[in-house]
Amino acid sequence: MTSARGLVAAQSARFAALDPLLPPAAEPPLDGHVLTAALADGARVAGVVSHQSFEPRSITQLWSAAEVWELLPLIGTTQGMDALLTRWRKYLDTQDIGEDTACVVHWPSRDTRAARAFLDHGLVPLSVLAVRLRAPHQQLHRTLTIRRATPNDLEVVLELSLAELEYSSSVGSTVVRPDAAATKRRALAERLANASPIWLAERDGIAVALAECAIVSSAPGTAAAARLPQGRWGYVNCVSVLPGARGTGIGQQLVAHVHQELHRMGTVGTYLYYNPPNPLSSVFWPRQGYRPLWTVWEVRPASALR
């Protein structure tokens, strides 16, 4: 891909103009399939398609199709997304595509011109990566006991995590697979054993909400550097409130506490993924100070790309 360096530089300029929090455009992977397309004005755009298959009973299969074709567009400053997606569709015709598959593109949320092309080709905004920069601590009237979870809390942490998984499966990319409980149990047991930042909110001694988090470093060469500004970030992986306790302010109290604790750990901000079709999270997270940075456009199965 002889023009890749120029396209990456032009795309980095495009990103900087769109959103000051976007990192420079990522270099294309070396092991992907290269696509190119010519535009009416003579300009050319390119993209690299990577293909991944995830093992059964892996944690990734709880939020992803088992087989994914992901496109990294390199369109520079052009409006060539439509031409590139058309080329991608033709490439997929050469692939053996099953049902548990997806086409995925991560693209800056503020690029509305590109959004039109994604919609026209059948991709939908199933999730967004949203960010919240470090802000002054918000004082809330506390009606809960909030504490770090320990290995002894595995069963209640699992219950709350599965409740979130079940709900999200109706409004996003999550998949409730037959082995979901066992897969979650293994992953959560490991995280609790490693004293990962996980909090429980209790009311009258009963756990009613969960916040499962992590610390992520965005440094040159890391996967996070392609999505976030450099620095130490708090990742809010899962927030779950029991169905009967929703709408009572529990989530807001828990998240305010989590923000304070993650900031004490030296983070520059926090980030998370939420589903725009989710009528709860699409309202809740902006109210907590989050705003979209990247949109994850997706279509399942992969053969449904237009």
From TrEMBL:
CDD domains recorded: NAT_SF
Chain ranges of the N-acetyltransferase domain = 144-306
Sorted alphabetically, the keyword list is:
Transferase
Q: Tell me one GO molecular function of this protein.
A: acyltransferase activity, transferring groups other than amino-acyl groups
Tell me which Gene3D superfamilies the record gives: 3.40.630.30
What the entry lists under Pfam families is as follows: Acetyltransf_1 (PF00583)
State the protein's name. Answer: Acetyltransferase (GNAT) family protein
